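Weekly puzzle thread! Below is a chain. First person to post its structure in token form gets bragging rights.
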Amino acid sequence: METRLQRDVNGRGPEQPPVVHALGVRRSFGSRVVLDGVDLDIAHDEFVAMLGRSGSGKTTFLRILSGLDTDASGEIRLPSARANVFQEPRLMPWKRVLDNVVLGLRGPGVKEKGRQALLEVGLVTHEQAWPITLSGGEAQRTALARALVREPQLLLLDEPFGALDALTRIRMHSLLEDLCRVHRPAVLLVTHDVDEAILLADRVVVLADGRISFDVRVGLDRPRIRRDPRFDELRSVLLSELGVEERGSPKRITPAALAD
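Winning reply:
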């Protein structure tokens, strides 16, 4: 089946089509099949986290949705307004912060939109800074501003906080929640961090053997706290699904039971 991309998914009303519709997505590298029929829908304003072991194909799937890998087969429907944030900020070192944020944008008021995006991430005073002077957290906040100034319907996040220290990650989690609440994009976050997935996502899916092996809605109120017994229960179940057994972990339960 050839890949079919239908740009501009702009449904209206209570029965809007999903922002992302992926059906039977397959990708191989030579004889190695990495994705073997991935099916995934993401609704408007829905935050989905994707977990999986190293080499499971998470980043490959994200690259397919971002348009960086065009050799997959299957049916894929996506919005035209998409933005990516990677583990590395990927800032242009020869451009100042504001120019990085508005890179590639055209039209009136672009610089002002960039300043507003920097204000949202707490970096408006850094607009004339060079990327080399930024801390890791500041660089990733700049990358978030660059993504959101484009007003994406779909935000694709590839382990954006993986290189940050623990305290900075906590602050970035809160910032990302706030930004998503304001801008309301559909989000796909690829991460190795089970706690991060539970803290941020509306749904968590696990990719294994080239397919979605587990899909659960996170039925926890926000803001979420790790000491909630339900948080710990879901964490143990997801770790088990990933092949990690913890001492005293609960018996396997179904996604429906977790959502109750």
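Puzzle host: Confirmed. Bonus trivia for everyone else. The domain at 4-259 is CATH 3.40.50.300 (Rossmann fold).
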